[in-house]
Design goal:
This protein is α/β, with parallel strands linked by helices. The chain contains 11 helices and 5 strands; from the N terminus they run E-H-E-H-E-H-E-H-E-H-H-H-H-H-H-H. Strand 4, helix 4 (90-98) and strand 5 form a beta-alpha-beta unit. Residues 3-121 form the Response regulatory domain.
Length: 220
């Protein structure tokens, strides 16, 4: 059973999401919050698999709430999905840097919304290659790169190759095909890279790969 926490300051939005999620046999809404501070507290209390959180809220916004959830070792298995009315904007990029596994626009189709919750619960990133490219073009390339040497020297050659392919939007199966290895080995390379780089998931790995200069928009 996938356990979901809803965090949104609009009761009508929460009720709609709750009804949609509650109709599924494999999903349950364990709690709701009307602001980010309450959302963080409820995440600590209920340890949900997925937190669906609005970007703009009173008391504590979704970005800071995401950052606090991602920084809490006790919430390591909690995957945050940011909800926005505004499509791709800098808030989405900041949320991904803060530790979100991905984002959804609130007018997403119900079937896509449910699919996204299940993807997030598995620990996968909700970043289609087209969205990744837009993020990179609009925000990452406008900001100073992190120190690539300090971040990437711990990686093996194969791990660096795997990270590069993740940043291009490839799945583990596609990475395996490119690297001529098994999907299990591809997943191992990706997971070891995430551990060494201290990132929670593939979404953060994508952002870091571009910010560090390992991958550039021109090398897509």
């Amino acid at each position: 059973m996938i356990r979901v926490l809803l965090v949104d300051d609009q009761p009508l939005i929460r009720s709609g999401f709750r009804a949609l999620l509650g109709a599924e046999d494999d999903i349950e809404v364990v709690a709701e919050a009307g602001d980010g501070s309450q959302g963080v507290a409820l995440a600590q209390e209920h340890l949900p698999d997925v937190v669906l959180i609005d970007v703009r809220m009173p008391v504590l916004d979704g970005i800071e709430a995401t950052r606090r959830i991602a920084a809490d070792p006790a919430l390591d298995g909690v995957h945050v999905v940011v909800l926005t009315n505004y499509g791709l904007d800098e808030h989405v990029y900041d949320a991904l840097r803060a530790g979100a596994a991905g984002f959804l626009v609130k007018d997403v189709l119900p079937e896509d919304f449910l699919h996204a919750v299940r993807v997030a619960a598995r620990g996968d990133a909700l970043l289609a290659p087209s969205i990744t490219r837009k993020l990179i073009d609009r925000y990452v390339t406008q900001r100073p790169h992190r120190n690539a040497g300090a971040l990437l020297t711990a990686l093996t050659v194969r791990e660096r190759e795997a990270v590069t392919l993740v940043a291009q939007g490839l799945s583990n199966e596609e990475i395996a095909g490119q690297m001529v290895i098994s999907p299990v080995t591809a997943k191992t390379h990706v997971n070891r890279a995430m551990t060494k780089l201290h990132v929670r998931d593939r979404a953060q790995l994508v952002v870091l790969a571009y910010e560090s200069g390992l991958v550039t928009p021109s090398s897509r």
